[in-house]
Amino acid sequence: MINCTSLALNGLDISCADSIGGIKEVYIALRDKVTQITVDGENEGMIQAITMADTEKFKTYKFRKQTGSLTSTVTTDDAAGTSYVSSVLALQFTKADQAKRLEIQSLIFANVYVIVKDENGTNFLLGLDNPVTCTAATHASGQAVGDFNGYTIELTDLSRQMPYIVPDSVLETLV
User: Most CB within 10 Å of its CB: which of 7, 60, 163, 167?
Assistant: First the structure.
């Protein structure tokens, strides 16, 4: 929980032009396979540790470049005194087949944790406050021979804060 009376602003400097968009990989685990998540100071938002049940690991989801995105949107209602973050992970998997269909079908009904590795090498955790759930999924055959054939899925996290950062040293123990 954020303590509104102890907030500090430090300012931000302009960054180098060395950032790129996109997602490299996504890692997903069923919520009941994760036994504990430790945050290093709630206001800092850095994940210190993630403990899995027995020998469980996050599953890796790979997809073609420039076909996945993560967008986090803050919604505030001043009159109601509420504020939350909706993070939507949109993924596209090319070429419809049975294995992908079954995996997408499972994701439609699952409650999960998700770690998103962006193209800058930063890992973001979704699902700390509430389960990440599927909010949309489609299958498309395409019409012309050059059209997309495959599945798209949107996984959504509703949280109190922007996605938490997971250091590479923590991620390495999970996949």
Answer: 163
CA distance 112 to 31: 5
- The partner residues of 123 in beta bridges, in order of sequence, read 117
Q: Are strands 34-40 and 46-52 parallel, antiparallel or unpaired?
A: antiparallel
In angstroms, the CA 88 to CA 158 distance is: 9
Q: How many of the other CB atoms lie within 10 Å of CB of 61?
A: 19
pTM: 0.89
For 7-52, how does the pLDDT look when each residue is reduced to its tens digit (9 = 90+)?
666 666 666 666 788 999 999 999 999 999 999 875 566 899 999 9
Residue type present at position 41: G
The pLDDT score that the predictor gives to residue 40 is 85
Token pair, residue 110, equals 């699952």
